[in-house]
Amino acid sequence: MKSLERNANDIRKNIVDMIYSSKSGHPGGSLSAVEILTYLYFKEMNIDPQNPKKQDRDRFVLSKGHAAPVLYATLAQRGYFDKEMLNTLRKLHSPLQGHPDSKKLVGVDVSTGSLGQGISNAVGIALGAKIDKSNVRVYSLLGDGEVQEGLVWEALMAAAHYKLDNLVAIIDNNGLQIDGKNEDVMNIYSLKDKLKAFNLNVLEIDGHSFEEIEKAFDIAKDTKGMPTVIIAKTVKGKGVSFMENEAGWHGNAPSLEQRNIAIQELESKGV
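== Transketolase ==
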């Protein structure tokens, strides 16, 4: 797991740097999802950065599209494009827009941003793969605030109805959204009970543990006849002490001083 840890730490540093450079972006929910995307792109998914459009590739849909920095940093780390491009985040004419755009950036399968639409697209892709009798697997990352959207539950109902066991939805359960704690804004709990009532295979894990992430994805592959939803307990702003568990870092960029402190903290981890 050491190589995964090194990649995750590099991805975190790049997230901080690119958001500082753009003076805009969403660091909190990007940093909380780093281990999940690192595992997907470096171990789990059938992908090839040298052949990013190969027909039988697994698909990833970032349903919480505002967390685009974690996707961009992961794609660059995996070799889809040069890391130098990361500092063009949100700049005019850059393919790295504030939300992922599949028409502009290689490696992005679905344009996302409007919450709930990403998982809906993922369900459609998974259903298409089933109809085609393809081995393609589909992964989608949602925010926990995002599941307040009714569209999410319509998509999950359809996924269960069509027995899409090639679909894995991961909920980044960091407990916070732009306005504060989930339970204060619009209570979503108990997530596990709600999801089980939709006839879904529900797993709960530590979303920062590669061992637990690996076990969950293995269980998902072995589960037949129903989709899997992984509730990943995470820390918003993970890895940067002053950002951790602070809702205010949902959509704010660090100052130069804050950027330097964050990078120093991440470099001191020695992975």
